[in-house]
Task: inverse folding
C-alpha cells in the first residue's frame, strides 16, 4: 500500500518561498504533524512525505498512491483542495486534517473524501485500516491524547532543504488569546511529553539547529517551569550539541536559573508575543498577562540578553485600539524594548477563534469568497475591516514599520550589539536580512494587488484615496483580488 502525506504550499506566503529568497531556508519548518503520523503508520504502507514549501513534484509522474493525507493551515486550504481534486480525479482517496479542516469540516468535505478533526494520532490507524478495506468514513474525530502515547516523529523522511529541524515537547496553551486557534485545537490544558522521549527524538534530528514548536515551552505555573528546567538539565546531560529556538511568554525572564539552564542546553533565541505596545491593545486581544504585573519590558529583555539569547518580538497591527501611526509606534516600541528581530502581523480572524466569531457577527470579515480567499489568511495580508484604517492605509502602516525597524542602519546596530554581547551575531544577521527581504517581497505582492506601486507607496486607486476612517465594503473586498480582478471590483 502506498501513502503520500502532503504539506501544501501557498505561493502568497513569501517566507515559504525558498526560491524567491535564499534567506527563507532559515524560516521554513518541517511539517512535524505529518512526520508523527508517519511514525504511527504500519509497515505495510510505503510512505512518501512531500513538503511543497521545499519542492513541488509532478504528482502525475509519480506512482499512483492508494491514499493521500493532506494537512493544512487556513492559508494552505486552497492549495490543499487543488491537490485533493487532482488525486481524486485519478480515483485516489484523500483524507484531510489539521487546524483548518477541524474548524471548517463541512467545507473541506466538499473537496476530500474524509476529514480528521482534532489531533489525529488517536484515530490514524483506524483511518488507514478503513482505507485499506474500502470502508473509509467521511469524518473521524481525534482525541487529545496523553503525549506519552505520541511517538517521536520520523525525521528520516525529510532530510534536505531545511536549515532547522523541529520538535514538539508540549501541547496546549492556557492563555487562550482571542486571535489564536491553539486553544481551540490543542486545548488550554498544558500537556507534555516524557523527557526521555524528547531527548531520544532530538538525537534523531540531523540538523544542528532546531525549532521547538511548542506554543509556550515553559508554560505558566511553577510546575510547568519546573518541568522545563528538568528538560533543560536532561538536554545538558545528553550533550546534544544543538542550538535551538523556542516560543515562550515574557515570564521566561523572571527566572534566572531557567534562563541559565536554557542557554546551557543550547537555547539561542526565544519568540515572545508582545502583541501590542498599548495596554488597551493587550486587553483587546485578551493578553492582560503582559500588563498585570506592571512589566518592564526593556529590563526583562536585558535579563534574557545576559544569557546570550536573542529575542524575537511579535506584534499585531489592526486592533480596534490602534490608530494612525501604529506602524512606527510598533517599530519604536520593539527598538526601545531591545528586541533583536521584529515580527509584525496583521490582525487576522482565523476560523475557530473568538476573534473570527466576533468579526463574523459584526460583518467585519472582508476576505470572504471562500475557499478562494483563504490564501490571504497568512497574517501578511489585511483580511478584515479595520476600525481606523482602509486596507491601503494599514498596508502603509506595515511598510512604515518594516522600513523603520529593518533599515540598514538599524540592522547594523542590532548585529553589532549581538556581536559585542556574543549573542549569536550570525543568526541575528541572517534573521534580520530574511525579514528585510520578505518585507520587500510583501511590498511587491501589495503592488500586484493594486494597492501600492512597486516602491511601496499608496496606489492612486479609489480605495487608497479615501480619507474617511470607516472603509467601505468595496475597498476591503477589492484588495483581495489578483489576476485582474482588483480593478473590476473597484469599478463596481
Result:
Amino acid at each position: 500500500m502506498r501513502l503520500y502525506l502532503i504539506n501544501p504550499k501557498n505561493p502568497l506566503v513569501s517566507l515559504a518561498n525558498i526560491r524567491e529568497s535564499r534567506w527563507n531556508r532559515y524560516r521554513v519548518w518541517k511539517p512535524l504533524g505529518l512526520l508523527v503520523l508517519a511514525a504511527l503508520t504500519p509497515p505495510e504502507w510505503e510512505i512518501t512525505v512531500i513538503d511543497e514549501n521545499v519542492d513541488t513534484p509532478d504528482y502525475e509522474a509519480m506512482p499512483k498512491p492508494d491514499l493521500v493525507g493532506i494537512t493544512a493551515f487556513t492559508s494552505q486550504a486552497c492549495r490543499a483542495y487543488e491537490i485533493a481534486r487532482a488525486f481524486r480525479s485519478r480515483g485516489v482517496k484523500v483524507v484531510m486534517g489539521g487546524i483548518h479542516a477541524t474548524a471548517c469540516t463541512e467545507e473541506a468535505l466538499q473537496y476530500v473524501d474524509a476529514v480528521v478533526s482534532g489531533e489525529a494520532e488517536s484515530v490514524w490507524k483506524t483511518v488507514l485500516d478503513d482505507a485499506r478495506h474500502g470502508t473509509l468514513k467521511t469524518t473521524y474525530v481525534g482525541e487529545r491524547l496523553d503525549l506519552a502515547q505520541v511517538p517521536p516523529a520520523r525525521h528520516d523522511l525529510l532530510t534536505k532543504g531545511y536549515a532547522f529541524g523541529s520538535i514538539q515537547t508540549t501541547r496546549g496553551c492556557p492563555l487562550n488569546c482571542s486571535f489564536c486557534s491553539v486553544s481551540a485545537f490543542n486545548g488550554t490544558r498544558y500537556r507534555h511529553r516524557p523527557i526521555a522521549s524528547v531527548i531520544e527524538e532530538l538525537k534523531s534530528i540531523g540538523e544542528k539547529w532546531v525549532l521547538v514548536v511548542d506554543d509556550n515551552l515553559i508554560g505558566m505555573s511553577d510546575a510547568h517551569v519546573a518541568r522545563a528546567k528538568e528538560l533543560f538539565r536532561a538536554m545538558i546531560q545528553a550533550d546534544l550539541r544543538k542550538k535551538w529556538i523556542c516560543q515562550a511568554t515574557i515570564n521566561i525572564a523572571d527566572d534566572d536559573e531557567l534562563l541559565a539552564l536554557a542557554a546551557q542546553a543550547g537555547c539561542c533565541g526565544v519568540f515572545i508575543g508582545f502583541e501590542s505596545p498599548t495596554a488597551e491593545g493587550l486587553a483587546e486581544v485578551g493578553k492582560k498577562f503582559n500588563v498585570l504585573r506592571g512589566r518592564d519590558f526593556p529590563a526583562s529583555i536585558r535579563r534574557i540578553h545576559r544569557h546570550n539569547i536573542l529575542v524575537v518580538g511579535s506584534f499585531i497591527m489592526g486592533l480596534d485600539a490602534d490608530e494612525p501611526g501604529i506602524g512606527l509606534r510598533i517599530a519604536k516600541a520593539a527598538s526601545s524594548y531591545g528586541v533583536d528581530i521584529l515580527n509584525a502581523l496583521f490582525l487576522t480572524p482565523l476560523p475557530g477563534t473568538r476573534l473570527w466569531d466576533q468579526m463574523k457577527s459584526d460583518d467585519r470579515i472582508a476576505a470572504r469568497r471562500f475557499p478562494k480567499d483563504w490564501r490571504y489568511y497568512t497574517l501578511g495580508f489585511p483580511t478584515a475591516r479595520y476600525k481606523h484604517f482602509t486596507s491601503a492605509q494599514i498596508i502603509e502602516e506595515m511598510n512604515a514599520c518594516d522600513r523603520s525597524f529593518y533599515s540598514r542602519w538599524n540592522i547594523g546596530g542590532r548585529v553589532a550589539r549581538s556581536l559585542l554581547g556574543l549573542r549569536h551575531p550570525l543568526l541575528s544577521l541572517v534573521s534580520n536580512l530574511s525579514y528585510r527581504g520578505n518585507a520587500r517581497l510583501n511590498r511587491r505582492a501589495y503592488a500586484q494587488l493594486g494597492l501600492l506601486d512597486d516602491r511601496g507607496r499608496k496606489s492612486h486607486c479609489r480605495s487608497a484615496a479615501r480619507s474617511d476612517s470607516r472603509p467601505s465594503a468595496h475597498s476591503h473586498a477589492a484588495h483581495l483580488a489578483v489576476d485582474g480582478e482588483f480593478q473590476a471590483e473597484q469599478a463596481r
Observations:
- The longest helix spans residues 425-448.
- The radius of gyration is 22 Å.
